[in-house]
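Priority: medium. Attachment 1 of 2:
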């Protein structure tokens, strides 16, 4: 997967903390070992910090691309006038 595709997907995904909350509600009702292990993986503070950093990086990159496109568009319309 290219970096560009990864950044777009990372920016679109829900935060890992939301998944941990949903899995926490599931494990409250049913102590399925698979669900508990998924919850533990999602609720890990290090995993949530890494997810937040990746989402932030991806969002910053996409905002930068959008600003560059806006700058190019304004430069083209300004030089044509």
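Attachment 2 of 2:
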């Amino acid at each position: 997967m290219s970096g560009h595709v990864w950044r777009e997907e990372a920016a679109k995904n829900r935060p890992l903390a939301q998944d941990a909350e949903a899995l926490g509600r599931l494990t409250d009702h049913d102590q399925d070992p698979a669900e508990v292990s998924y919850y533990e993986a999602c609720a890990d503070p290090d995993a949530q910090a890494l997810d937040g950093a990746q989402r932030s990086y991806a969002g910053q990159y996409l905002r930068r691309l959008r600003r560059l496109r806006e700058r190019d568009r304004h430069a083209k319309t300004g030089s044509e006038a």
